[in-house]
Amino acid sequence: MELLKERILKDGTVKPGNVLKVDSFLNHQMDIPLINEIGKEFKRIYADAPITKILTIEASGIGIACIAAQYFNVPVVFAKKAKSVNLDGEMYTTKIESFTHKKVYDVILAKKFLSPEDHVLIIDDFLANGCALNGLIDIVHHSGATLEGTGIVIEKGFQRGGDMLRERGIRVESLAIIDSMTDTSLTFRE
Questions:
Q1: What is the CATH number of the domain that holds 117?
Q2: How many domains does the chain have?
């Protein structure tokens, strides 16, 4: 998606340790017209899939998933990284290691929000090593739902997460794939 790539080059900041900061437009402050175009693009890509739910993980994926969901006319469900007192009933649980936060989270989703009748599209802002996606895929499989695929805004193609998921037969659609990144620059896959 050229609009996204242009915005990454213009406003993204590369930090040491293969960190790309896009907090001025994607995951801290959100550029709604840009994210609206991202939602339209996910709908175009998955127009052939019978999506009934969009699944993401808190927190950065929620806004993107919500805007995309309006084009699919389906609900968004998100996995939580902490159990709170207002959660009730049975839960799906998995463990996810965050590349950015260098922390392992117990991730939970109420079973009542995902069933074997659902056809799920997972949406997230970043794909690096694939830990978050693997955890969400695990939840989908445990629910008995059908995984239609994943929609990723930015994939770090030089890390193995996307390739490993594709090798497992999982549909991974990334809007911008970064092939290489140094402390001062980045290049996109064509």
A1: 3.40.50.2020
A2: 1
Residue numbers in the known binding site are 20, 27, 128-132, 156
Residue 170 CB-half CA count within 13 A: 26
Q: Is residue 32 part of a domain?
A: yes
Query: Which residues are documented as binding site for xanthine?
Result: 20, 27, 156
- Locate tokens 């140094």: which residue? 182
Which residue is listed with tokens 């340790």?
Answer: 17
DSSP E strand stretches across 27-118: 53-57, 76-79, 91-98, 103-110
Residue 164 domain flag: yes
Asked whether residue 147 is assigned to any structural domain, the reply reads yes
pLDDT at 69: 98
Q: Which residues contact 131 (CB under 8 A, 6 or more apart)?
A: 96, 97, 98, 99, 161
Structural domain that includes position 112 = 2-179
Please tell me which of 25-29, 84-88, 95-99 the model is most confident about, judged by mean pLDDT. 25-29
- Give domain status of residue 145, yes or no: yes
Query: 146 and 129 in contact (C-beta within 8 Å)?
Result: no
Q: Please choose, from the candidates 135, 125, 130, the residue with its C-alpha nearest in 3D space to the C-alpha of residue 161.
A: 130
For the question of whether the overall pTM of this predicted structure is more than 0.90, the answer is yes
Which uninterrupted H or E stretch holds 138?
Answer: helix 131-143
Annotation: binding site for 5-phospho-alpha-D-ribose 1-diphosphate: 128-132
